[in-house]
């Protein structure tokens, strides 16, 4: 059987743990939202004629990283 939350100190630590967990979940959701926004913008720029190499230079990443970002978006949309 596990240890029971017995003292005020333990309850406070458990409350802090729950707060940190909630913040981590919120941060992960926000990161996923930002990744979707990034892919949408990349796809718009590519449609306007920018190359993956151009975008990679602007972002300071490799062309392969751009290619992967776009591919992940296509996979998630079922293309």
TrEMBL record:
Chain segments annotated as coiled-coil in the UniProt record: none
Q: Which InterPro entries match?
A: Cro/C1-type_HTH (IPR001387), Fimbrial_Adhesin_Reg (IPR053721), TrfB (IPR032428)
Sequence ranges assigned to domain HTH cro/C1-type in this UniProt record:
41-69
Q: Which UniProt keywords apply?
A: Transcription, Transcription regulation
Q: Does the keyword Nucleotide-binding apply?
A: no
Does this entry carry the keyword Metal-binding? no
Q: What is the protein named?
A: HTH cro/C1-type domain-containing protein
**Organism of provenance:** Rugosimonospora acidiphila
